[in-house]
């Protein structure tokens, strides 16, 4: 399995979502690692456009759900509909049964709706009444949060954040990218011919996932991944100041995520082995939402990114 097809997807995404290479590259990492993404950034940065473009590139169906305070779990998962003509109940699937889901402003929905989504993400199935329904084999959620306005929101608990493979922080594009965005949207408004891409079959994606899992990883790299995670749980072993910053470290789910994402990063870059640079490349996106910082860190204005910078500088490759 070669990376050429995924390079074409990456180029296509970059042509459609300008100035957000961090988002487009990590969408492919998540796709190959079989995980979900939480994206945090101001509105208007093409998050909906990004996952819609990915759906076109991978031959999958896309659905956007706007999370609001009055949303119910059944609005997401579906429900049994009563048929009076024969007295039976038929299950009407909800939007969760699509391949790629955009959960827009997930923190605007109450806890029951968030729980329904996160359960579906973790179990890849939905239970309604006495029956359980499997979700599609290709299933990926991209949830968004708006960092600018928190009034009337329901913040995700740390235990639920752990369900996301990656937490991406995106910001406004540069001035040159902004000009390219103007030209792109103007051309679309004038119905000019846009870039097209031949969609990959889902079988190709599953074969690529198998190739990612089989990429060579030396024992030293495995030890490096484990040491990075242990540093979040036992920071005093590495640095007294680090111990003051971390209240709770990352779970074994983080170890698995770091392994999967480092493998996907290496594979997408055409390597046949995983290097320390691949681990470091995905470290912040995998771990920033899994750390619980202490009151001291928050009082000092220390961010999760700064803590991870410190860990990266302290933990050596064996």
CATH topology-level fold name of the largest domain: Rossmann fold
Number of extended strands: 11
Return the CATH class of the largest domain.
Answer: Alpha Beta
Write down the Rg: 21 Å
Structural class: alpha/beta
User: Biggest β-sheet: count, sense, barrel?
Assistant: 5 strands, parallel
As for the number of domains, it is 2
Roughly how many Å apart are the termini? 30 Å
Order of strands side by side in the largest beta sheet?
A: 2-5-8-1-9
Q: What's the rounded overall pLDDT mean?
A: 90
How much helix, percentage-wise, in residues?
Answer: 40-55%
Residue share in β-strands: 15-25%
The CATH architecture of the largest domain: 3-Layer(aba) Sandwich
By DSSP (H or I, 4+ residues per run), the number of helices equals 14
Anisotropy-based shape: globular
Secondary-structure element sequence?
HHEHEHEEEHEEEHEHHHHEHHEHH
Full CATH superfamily name of the largest domain: P-loop containing nucleotide triphosphate hydrolases
Unreliable stretches (pLDDT < 50, length at least 5) are none
Which structural traits does this protein have?
5-stranded parallel β-sheet; 2 domains; 318 residues; single chain; Rossmann fold
Describe this protein's structure.
- It is a single chain.
- With 318 residues, this protein is of the alpha/beta class.
- The chain has 2 domains: 4-69 and 97-189, Rossmann fold; 215-314, Orthogonal Bundle (Helicase, Ruva Protein, domain 3).
- It contains 14 helices and 11 strands.
- The strands form 4 sheets. A 5-stranded parallel sheet has the order 2-5-8-1-9. A two-stranded antiparallel sheet has the order 3-4. It has a two-stranded antiparallel ribbon with strand order 6-7.
- Helix 1 (4-16) packs antiparallel against helix 2 (21-33), helix 1 (4-16) runs antiparallel to helix 3 and helix 9 (219-233) crosses helix 11.
- The radius of gyration is 21 Å and the shape is globular.
- 37% of the residues are buried.
